[in-house]
Amino acid sequence: MQYIFSTRSARLGQRWRRIVPLIMLTHILISMDHINLSFALPEIERSLAIGATLVGIAAGVLSCGALLAQVPAGYWVAKWGPRRVVTLALLSWGVLALANSGVQNATQLLIVRFLLGMIDGAMGPALLVLLSRWFPLEERARANTYWMFCIPLTSLALKPLVGLLLLHMNWRMLFVIEGIGPLLWAPLWFFLVADEPGKARWIGIEEQEELEHKFARDKARTAGTRKQNWREVLKLGSVWALGIASLLGGLGARGMNFWLPVVITGVTHQRSSTVGLIAVLPSLAGMVGLYINSRHSDRSKERKRHAGVPHLLAGFALLAAGILVVVNRNMSIGSLIIAEGCMLAAGGVFWTLPALLLSSESLGAGVGMIGSISGIGGIVGPLFMGWIMTSKEGVHGISLLMAFVGLTQLISGYIILSLRVEEQPAQAVQEAGALLAYAPSSPGQE
Protein backbone atom coordinates (compact mmCIF):
# COMPACT_ATOMS: atom_id res chain seq x y z
CA MET A 1 0.00 0.00 0.00
CA GLN A 2 2.81 2.41 0.86
CA TYR A 3 4.43 1.65 -2.50
CA ILE A 4 1.18 2.42 -4.31
CA PHE A 5 0.83 5.82 -2.65
CA SER A 6 4.49 6.71 -3.23
CA THR A 7 4.17 5.75 -6.89
CA ARG A 8 1.03 7.86 -7.25
CA SER A 9 2.72 10.84 -5.57
CA ALA A 10 5.73 10.55 -7.88
CA ARG A 11 3.44 10.34 -10.89
CA LEU A 12 1.40 13.39 -9.87
CA GLY A 13 4.61 15.25 -9.08
CA GLN A 14 5.64 15.22 -12.74
CA ARG A 15 3.48 18.25 -13.44
CA TRP A 16 5.18 20.22 -10.69
CA ARG A 17 8.66 19.21 -11.85
CA ARG A 18 8.01 19.92 -15.52
CA ILE A 19 5.53 22.78 -15.82
CA VAL A 20 6.30 24.99 -12.81
CA PRO A 21 10.08 25.32 -13.40
CA LEU A 22 9.50 26.20 -17.06
CA ILE A 23 7.02 28.91 -16.12
CA MET A 24 9.31 30.22 -13.40
CA LEU A 25 12.31 30.43 -15.72
CA THR A 26 10.24 32.22 -18.35
CA HIS A 27 9.00 34.76 -15.84
CA ILE A 28 12.49 35.31 -14.44
CA LEU A 29 13.83 36.11 -17.92
CA ILE A 30 11.16 38.77 -18.33
CA SER A 31 11.42 40.12 -14.77
CA MET A 32 15.14 40.75 -15.30
CA ASP A 33 14.17 43.97 -17.05
CA HIS A 34 12.76 45.63 -13.92
CA ILE A 35 15.94 44.99 -11.95
CA ASN A 36 18.15 46.21 -14.77
CA LEU A 37 16.20 49.45 -15.05
CA SER A 38 16.05 50.13 -11.30
CA PHE A 39 19.81 49.67 -10.85
CA ALA A 40 20.72 51.51 -14.06
CA LEU A 41 18.71 54.65 -13.19
CA PRO A 42 21.67 56.91 -12.32
CA GLU A 43 23.65 55.76 -15.37
CA ILE A 44 20.65 56.24 -17.69
CA GLU A 45 20.04 59.74 -16.31
CA ARG A 46 23.63 60.77 -17.01
CA SER A 47 23.94 59.00 -20.37
CA LEU A 48 20.72 60.35 -21.87
CA ALA A 49 20.74 63.65 -19.94
CA ILE A 50 17.30 63.14 -18.42
CA GLY A 51 15.97 63.69 -14.90
CA ALA A 52 14.51 61.35 -12.32
CA THR A 53 10.96 62.35 -13.18
CA LEU A 54 11.43 61.37 -16.83
CA VAL A 55 12.97 58.08 -15.75
CA GLY A 56 9.86 57.53 -13.66
CA ILE A 57 7.79 58.19 -16.78
CA ALA A 58 9.87 55.59 -18.64
CA ALA A 59 9.00 53.07 -15.92
CA GLY A 60 5.35 54.08 -16.00
CA VAL A 61 5.04 53.91 -19.78
CA LEU A 62 5.99 50.22 -19.60
CA SER A 63 2.95 49.66 -17.42
CA CYS A 64 0.91 51.78 -19.82
CA GLY A 65 1.76 49.37 -22.63
CA ALA A 66 0.85 46.45 -20.40
CA LEU A 67 -2.45 48.11 -19.52
CA LEU A 68 -3.44 48.34 -23.16
CA ALA A 69 -2.35 44.80 -24.02
CA GLN A 70 -3.67 42.68 -21.17
CA VAL A 71 -7.37 42.42 -22.09
CA PRO A 72 -6.79 41.61 -25.79
CA ALA A 73 -3.97 39.29 -24.68
CA GLY A 74 -6.53 37.31 -22.69
CA TYR A 75 -8.57 36.91 -25.87
CA TRP A 76 -5.50 35.80 -27.83
CA VAL A 77 -4.65 33.25 -25.17
CA ALA A 78 -8.15 31.78 -25.34
CA LYS A 79 -7.97 31.62 -29.15
CA TRP A 80 -4.37 30.53 -29.83
CA GLY A 81 -3.34 28.92 -26.54
CA PRO A 82 -0.79 30.11 -23.95
CA ARG A 83 2.13 28.19 -25.47
CA ARG A 84 2.06 30.14 -28.74
CA VAL A 85 1.41 33.49 -27.07
CA VAL A 86 4.35 33.04 -24.68
CA THR A 87 6.64 31.94 -27.53
CA LEU A 88 5.84 35.06 -29.56
CA ALA A 89 6.22 37.22 -26.45
CA LEU A 90 9.68 35.80 -25.70
CA LEU A 91 10.93 36.44 -29.22
CA SER A 92 9.54 39.97 -29.23
CA TRP A 93 10.98 40.67 -25.80
CA GLY A 94 14.46 39.63 -26.84
CA VAL A 95 14.45 41.92 -29.86
CA LEU A 96 13.11 44.89 -27.90
CA ALA A 97 15.54 44.40 -25.01
CA LEU A 98 18.42 44.54 -27.48
CA ALA A 99 16.88 47.70 -28.94
CA ASN A 100 16.67 49.14 -25.42
CA SER A 101 20.43 48.79 -25.10
CA GLY A 102 20.93 51.10 -28.07
CA VAL A 103 18.58 54.01 -27.31
CA GLN A 104 20.17 57.43 -27.74
CA ASN A 105 17.56 59.81 -26.37
CA ALA A 106 14.47 60.02 -24.17
CA THR A 107 12.03 59.57 -27.07
CA GLN A 108 13.60 56.30 -28.17
CA LEU A 109 13.68 55.09 -24.55
CA LEU A 110 9.96 55.81 -24.07
CA ILE A 111 8.99 54.06 -27.32
CA VAL A 112 10.97 50.91 -26.53
CA ARG A 113 9.68 50.83 -22.94
CA PHE A 114 6.10 51.13 -24.15
CA LEU A 115 6.50 48.23 -26.58
CA LEU A 116 8.16 46.13 -23.88
CA GLY A 117 5.18 46.89 -21.68
CA MET A 118 2.79 45.52 -24.29
CA ILE A 119 4.74 42.25 -24.37
CA ASP A 120 4.79 42.16 -20.58
CA GLY A 121 1.02 42.66 -20.57
CA ALA A 122 0.54 39.62 -22.79
CA MET A 123 2.85 37.40 -20.78
CA GLY A 124 1.04 37.58 -17.42
CA PRO A 125 -2.41 36.36 -18.53
CA ALA A 126 -0.84 33.65 -20.70
CA LEU A 127 1.18 32.16 -17.83
CA LEU A 128 -1.72 32.32 -15.38
CA VAL A 129 -4.08 30.63 -17.83
CA LEU A 130 -1.47 27.93 -18.45
CA LEU A 131 -1.34 27.28 -14.71
CA SER A 132 -5.13 27.08 -14.57
CA ARG A 133 -5.12 24.41 -17.29
CA TRP A 134 -2.54 22.24 -15.55
CA PHE A 135 -3.50 22.52 -11.88
CA PRO A 136 -6.99 22.00 -10.42
CA LEU A 137 -8.42 24.51 -7.96
CA GLU A 138 -7.28 22.51 -4.94
CA GLU A 139 -3.67 23.04 -6.10
CA ARG A 140 -4.07 26.48 -7.63
CA ALA A 141 -2.90 28.65 -4.73
CA ARG A 142 0.29 26.60 -4.39
CA ALA A 143 0.87 26.71 -8.16
CA ASN A 144 0.28 30.47 -8.28
CA THR A 145 2.64 30.89 -5.36
CA TYR A 146 5.44 29.08 -7.16
CA TRP A 147 4.83 31.45 -10.04
CA MET A 148 4.93 34.40 -7.64
CA PHE A 149 8.20 33.04 -6.25
CA CYS A 150 9.75 34.30 -9.47
CA ILE A 151 9.69 37.84 -8.08
CA PRO A 152 11.91 37.23 -5.03
CA LEU A 153 13.93 34.55 -6.86
CA THR A 154 14.80 37.03 -9.59
CA SER A 155 15.83 39.56 -6.97
CA LEU A 156 17.93 37.03 -5.08
CA ALA A 157 19.71 35.86 -8.19
CA LEU A 158 20.13 39.12 -10.07
CA LYS A 159 20.28 42.11 -7.73
CA PRO A 160 23.75 41.29 -6.35
CA LEU A 161 24.89 40.31 -9.85
CA VAL A 162 23.57 43.47 -11.50
CA GLY A 163 25.08 45.63 -8.76
CA LEU A 164 28.45 43.94 -9.32
CA LEU A 165 28.24 44.15 -13.12
CA LEU A 166 27.61 47.88 -12.99
CA LEU A 167 31.02 48.28 -11.36
CA HIS A 168 32.68 46.81 -14.47
CA MET A 169 30.38 47.60 -17.43
CA ASN A 170 27.91 50.23 -18.55
CA TRP A 171 24.12 49.99 -18.33
CA ARG A 172 23.70 49.12 -22.03
CA MET A 173 25.35 45.73 -21.59
CA LEU A 174 22.74 44.81 -18.97
CA PHE A 175 20.02 45.05 -21.62
CA VAL A 176 22.11 43.14 -24.16
CA ILE A 177 22.34 40.25 -21.70
CA GLU A 178 18.61 40.59 -21.00
CA GLY A 179 17.76 40.31 -24.71
CA ILE A 180 19.84 37.23 -25.47
CA GLY A 181 18.14 35.02 -22.86
CA PRO A 182 14.54 35.12 -24.22
CA LEU A 183 15.73 34.63 -27.80
CA LEU A 184 17.52 31.42 -26.82
CA TRP A 185 14.69 30.21 -24.58
CA ALA A 186 11.73 30.78 -26.95
CA PRO A 187 12.23 27.70 -29.21
CA LEU A 188 12.87 25.48 -26.19
CA TRP A 189 9.68 26.71 -24.53
CA PHE A 190 7.63 25.96 -27.66
CA PHE A 191 8.75 22.32 -27.81
CA LEU A 192 8.77 21.60 -24.06
CA VAL A 193 5.37 23.01 -23.05
CA ALA A 194 1.86 21.79 -23.90
CA ASP A 195 -1.27 23.92 -23.50
CA GLU A 196 -3.00 21.28 -21.35
CA PRO A 197 -2.44 17.75 -19.98
CA GLY A 198 -4.36 16.12 -22.83
CA LYS A 199 -1.78 17.41 -25.33
CA ALA A 200 1.29 16.29 -23.38
CA ARG A 201 2.91 13.03 -24.50
CA TRP A 202 4.67 12.42 -21.21
CA ILE A 203 1.45 12.13 -19.18
CA GLY A 204 -0.02 8.66 -18.82
CA ILE A 205 -3.65 7.81 -19.49
CA GLU A 206 -4.37 7.21 -15.80
CA GLU A 207 -3.07 10.62 -14.79
CA GLN A 208 -4.96 12.31 -17.63
CA GLU A 209 -8.19 10.70 -16.48
CA GLU A 210 -7.58 11.72 -12.89
CA LEU A 211 -6.93 15.33 -13.92
CA GLU A 212 -9.99 15.36 -16.18
CA HIS A 213 -12.06 14.21 -13.21
CA LYS A 214 -10.69 17.00 -11.01
CA PHE A 215 -11.24 19.67 -13.65
CA ALA A 216 -14.77 18.40 -14.23
CA ARG A 217 -15.39 18.62 -10.48
CA ASP A 218 -14.05 22.18 -10.45
CA LYS A 219 -16.30 23.09 -13.36
CA ALA A 220 -19.31 21.67 -11.53
CA ARG A 221 -18.52 23.83 -8.50
CA THR A 222 -18.66 26.93 -10.66
CA ALA A 223 -21.64 25.72 -12.70
CA GLY A 224 -23.70 28.65 -11.43
CA THR A 225 -21.36 31.03 -13.21
CA ARG A 226 -22.71 31.75 -16.66
CA LYS A 227 -20.17 31.56 -19.47
CA GLN A 228 -19.15 35.04 -20.49
CA ASN A 229 -17.15 36.43 -23.35
CA TRP A 230 -14.46 39.00 -22.76
CA ARG A 231 -16.79 41.96 -23.46
CA GLU A 232 -19.17 40.81 -20.75
CA VAL A 233 -16.29 40.33 -18.33
CA LEU A 234 -15.60 44.06 -18.57
CA LYS A 235 -19.04 44.74 -17.06
CA LEU A 236 -18.65 42.56 -13.96
CA GLY A 237 -18.44 44.60 -10.77
CA SER A 238 -16.71 41.77 -8.96
CA VAL A 239 -13.85 41.82 -11.46
CA TRP A 240 -13.53 45.59 -11.02
CA ALA A 241 -13.40 45.13 -7.23
CA LEU A 242 -10.50 42.71 -7.51
CA GLY A 243 -8.85 45.01 -10.01
CA ILE A 244 -9.01 48.04 -7.71
CA ALA A 245 -7.63 46.04 -4.79
CA SER A 246 -4.82 44.80 -7.02
CA LEU A 247 -4.24 48.33 -8.31
CA LEU A 248 -3.72 49.77 -4.84
CA GLY A 249 -1.62 46.87 -3.63
CA GLY A 250 0.46 46.82 -6.79
CA LEU A 251 0.83 50.60 -6.91
CA GLY A 252 2.90 50.54 -3.77
CA ALA A 253 4.61 47.21 -4.39
CA ARG A 254 5.71 47.97 -7.95
CA GLY A 255 6.74 51.53 -7.23
CA MET A 256 8.69 50.51 -4.14
CA ASN A 257 10.36 47.66 -6.00
CA PHE A 258 11.39 50.05 -8.78
CA TRP A 259 12.81 52.69 -6.43
CA LEU A 260 14.17 50.25 -3.81
CA PRO A 261 17.86 50.54 -4.83
CA VAL A 262 17.57 54.34 -4.73
CA VAL A 263 15.88 54.21 -1.32
CA ILE A 264 18.53 51.87 0.11
CA THR A 265 21.28 54.05 -1.33
CA GLY A 266 19.72 57.12 0.27
CA VAL A 267 19.44 55.41 3.65
CA THR A 268 22.79 53.58 3.76
CA HIS A 269 24.99 55.65 1.39
CA GLN A 270 26.66 52.47 0.09
CA ARG A 271 27.95 51.68 -3.41
CA SER A 272 25.98 49.62 -5.94
CA SER A 273 27.47 46.23 -5.08
CA THR A 274 26.59 46.62 -1.38
CA VAL A 275 23.14 47.98 -2.23
CA GLY A 276 22.57 44.88 -4.35
CA LEU A 277 23.32 42.63 -1.39
CA ILE A 278 21.03 44.59 0.94
CA ALA A 279 18.26 44.62 -1.67
CA VAL A 280 17.98 40.81 -1.58
CA LEU A 281 16.85 40.83 2.06
CA PRO A 282 13.30 42.01 1.24
CA SER A 283 13.19 39.29 -1.42
CA LEU A 284 14.14 36.64 1.14
CA ALA A 285 11.34 37.89 3.38
CA GLY A 286 9.00 37.73 0.40
CA MET A 287 9.84 34.10 -0.29
CA VAL A 288 9.17 33.14 3.31
CA GLY A 289 5.90 35.07 3.35
CA LEU A 290 4.72 33.57 0.08
CA TYR A 291 5.41 30.02 1.19
CA ILE A 292 3.86 30.26 4.65
CA ASN A 293 0.78 32.20 3.58
CA SER A 294 -0.11 30.06 0.58
CA ARG A 295 0.46 26.76 2.37
CA HIS A 296 -1.70 27.82 5.29
CA SER A 297 -4.36 29.09 2.88
CA ASP A 298 -4.49 25.75 1.07
CA ARG A 299 -4.68 23.79 4.31
CA SER A 300 -7.37 25.97 5.90
CA LYS A 301 -9.30 26.42 2.63
CA GLU A 302 -9.60 30.14 3.42
CA ARG A 303 -8.69 32.86 0.91
CA LYS A 304 -10.00 36.30 1.85
CA ARG A 305 -8.02 36.86 5.04
CA HIS A 306 -4.90 35.29 3.54
CA ALA A 307 -5.10 37.80 0.68
CA GLY A 308 -6.09 40.87 2.70
CA VAL A 309 -4.29 40.72 6.07
CA PRO A 310 -0.75 40.74 4.56
CA HIS A 311 -1.54 44.08 2.90
CA LEU A 312 -2.61 45.54 6.26
CA LEU A 313 0.58 44.31 7.92
CA ALA A 314 2.65 45.74 5.06
CA GLY A 315 0.91 49.09 5.44
CA PHE A 316 1.66 49.35 9.14
CA ALA A 317 5.28 48.25 8.61
CA LEU A 318 5.79 50.90 5.92
CA LEU A 319 4.30 53.64 8.09
CA ALA A 320 6.72 52.58 10.83
CA ALA A 321 9.61 52.61 8.33
CA GLY A 322 8.68 56.13 7.28
CA ILE A 323 9.01 57.30 10.87
CA LEU A 324 12.11 55.26 11.71
CA VAL A 325 14.07 56.45 8.66
CA VAL A 326 14.39 59.82 10.38
CA VAL A 327 15.40 58.51 13.83
CA ASN A 328 16.92 55.05 13.27
CA ARG A 329 17.88 54.08 9.74
CA ASN A 330 18.83 50.49 10.53
CA MET A 331 15.42 49.83 12.04
CA SER A 332 13.77 51.45 9.03
CA ILE A 333 15.48 48.92 6.76
CA GLY A 334 14.15 46.15 9.02
CA SER A 335 10.59 47.49 8.74
CA LEU A 336 11.00 47.75 4.98
CA ILE A 337 12.05 44.09 4.81
CA ILE A 338 8.96 43.04 6.78
CA ALA A 339 6.72 45.14 4.55
CA GLU A 340 8.13 43.64 1.37
CA GLY A 341 7.62 40.14 2.74
CA CYS A 342 3.99 40.88 3.55
CA MET A 343 3.27 42.49 0.17
CA LEU A 344 4.56 39.46 -1.70
CA ALA A 345 2.82 37.02 0.66
CA ALA A 346 -0.62 38.04 -0.58
CA GLY A 347 0.05 37.48 -4.28
CA GLY A 348 -0.20 33.72 -4.59
CA VAL A 349 -3.56 33.59 -2.79
CA PHE A 350 -5.01 36.65 -4.51
CA TRP A 351 -4.70 35.15 -7.98
CA THR A 352 -6.81 32.13 -7.05
CA LEU A 353 -9.86 34.39 -6.88
CA PRO A 354 -10.56 35.05 -10.59
CA ALA A 355 -10.79 31.32 -11.39
CA LEU A 356 -13.73 31.06 -8.98
CA LEU A 357 -15.58 34.01 -10.48
CA LEU A 358 -15.27 33.13 -14.15
CA SER A 359 -15.65 30.14 -16.41
CA SER A 360 -12.55 28.68 -18.01
CA GLU A 361 -13.57 30.33 -21.30
CA SER A 362 -13.61 33.75 -19.63
CA LEU A 363 -10.62 33.32 -17.36
CA GLY A 364 -8.04 34.79 -19.72
CA ALA A 365 -10.09 37.96 -20.29
CA GLY A 366 -10.92 38.24 -16.57
CA VAL A 367 -7.28 37.95 -15.51
CA GLY A 368 -6.38 40.41 -18.24
CA MET A 369 -9.01 42.87 -17.03
CA ILE A 370 -7.85 42.69 -13.42
CA GLY A 371 -4.27 43.04 -14.59
CA SER A 372 -5.17 46.05 -16.71
CA ILE A 373 -6.80 47.86 -13.79
CA SER A 374 -3.84 46.91 -11.62
CA GLY A 375 -1.55 48.18 -14.35
CA ILE A 376 -2.68 51.75 -13.65
CA GLY A 377 -0.73 51.44 -10.42
CA GLY A 378 2.32 50.49 -12.43
CA ILE A 379 1.90 53.72 -14.41
CA VAL A 380 1.15 56.09 -11.55
CA GLY A 381 3.33 54.50 -8.86
CA PRO A 382 6.86 54.98 -10.28
CA LEU A 383 5.96 58.42 -11.69
CA PHE A 384 4.46 59.73 -8.45
CA MET A 385 7.27 58.26 -6.38
CA GLY A 386 9.81 59.82 -8.71
CA TRP A 387 8.13 63.17 -8.14
CA ILE A 388 8.27 62.63 -4.37
CA MET A 389 11.97 61.74 -4.53
CA THR A 390 12.78 64.91 -6.50
CA SER A 391 10.51 67.29 -4.57
CA LYS A 392 11.67 66.20 -1.12
CA GLU A 393 15.39 65.69 -0.71
CA GLY A 394 17.14 63.17 1.54
CA VAL A 395 15.44 61.16 4.26
CA HIS A 396 12.35 63.37 4.25
CA GLY A 397 11.54 62.34 0.70
CA ILE A 398 12.12 58.69 1.58
CA SER A 399 9.90 59.03 4.67
CA LEU A 400 7.07 60.54 2.62
CA LEU A 401 7.50 57.82 0.01
CA MET A 402 7.11 55.05 2.57
CA ALA A 403 4.06 56.71 4.11
CA PHE A 404 2.40 56.89 0.70
CA VAL A 405 3.09 53.23 -0.08
CA GLY A 406 1.89 52.22 3.38
CA LEU A 407 -1.43 53.99 2.81
CA THR A 408 -2.03 52.17 -0.47
CA GLN A 409 -1.43 48.83 1.24
CA LEU A 410 -3.88 49.60 4.05
CA ILE A 411 -6.63 50.54 1.61
CA SER A 412 -6.01 47.47 -0.54
CA GLY A 413 -6.21 45.18 2.48
CA TYR A 414 -9.42 46.83 3.64
CA ILE A 415 -11.09 46.34 0.25
CA ILE A 416 -10.19 42.66 0.11
CA LEU A 417 -11.37 42.03 3.66
CA SER A 418 -14.64 43.86 2.92
CA LEU A 419 -15.56 41.54 0.06
CA ARG A 420 -18.37 39.07 0.60
CA VAL A 421 -16.87 35.60 0.55
CA GLU A 422 -18.78 32.34 0.78
CA GLU A 423 -16.65 30.06 2.91
CA GLN A 424 -16.41 26.45 1.79
CA PRO A 425 -16.51 23.57 4.31
CA ALA A 426 -13.06 22.09 4.77
CA GLN A 427 -14.32 18.51 4.48
CA ALA A 428 -15.62 19.21 0.98
CA VAL A 429 -12.03 19.81 -0.18
CA GLN A 430 -13.23 22.83 -2.15
CA GLU A 431 -11.32 25.92 -3.12
CA ALA A 432 -12.61 28.72 -0.91
CA GLY A 433 -12.95 31.76 -3.08
CA ALA A 434 -14.03 35.29 -3.49
CA LEU A 435 -17.61 34.64 -4.52
CA LEU A 436 -18.09 38.35 -4.78
CA ALA A 437 -21.17 40.52 -4.67
CA TYR A 438 -19.13 43.60 -3.98
CA ALA A 439 -20.57 45.93 -6.57
CA PRO A 440 -24.28 46.73 -6.28
CA SER A 441 -24.50 46.95 -10.04
CA SER A 442 -23.83 43.26 -10.50
CA PRO A 443 -25.46 41.20 -7.83
CA GLY A 444 -25.55 37.53 -8.10
CA GLN A 445 -22.53 37.27 -10.33
CA GLU A 446 -20.72 34.92 -8.03
From TrEMBL:
Pfam families named among the record's database cross-references: MFS_1 (PF07690)
Membrane topology reported for the UniProt record: Multi-pass membrane protein
PROSITE patterns referenced in this protein's UniProt entry, alphabetically: MFS
Major localisation: membrane
InterPro entries, sorted: MFS, MFS_dom, MFS_Na/Anion_cotransporter, MFS_trans_sf
Name of protein: Major facilitator superfamily MFS_1
Subcellular location: Cell membrane
Keyword DNA-binding recorded: no
Transmembrane segments: 20-41, 47-73, 85-103, 109-134, 146-167, 173-194, 233-253, 273-294, 306-327, 333-353, 365-389, 395-417
Keywords assigned: Membrane, Transmembrane, Transmembrane helix
UniProt GO molecular function: transmembrane transporter activity
Top-rank taxon, per record: Bacteria
Residue ranges of every copy of the Major facilitator superfamily (MFS) profile domain listed in the record: 19-424
Record-linked SUPFAM superfamilies: MFS general substrate transporter (SSF103473)
Any one annotated GO CC term: plasma membrane
Source taxonomy: Bacteria, Bacillati, Chloroflexota, Ktedonobacteria, Ktedonobacterales
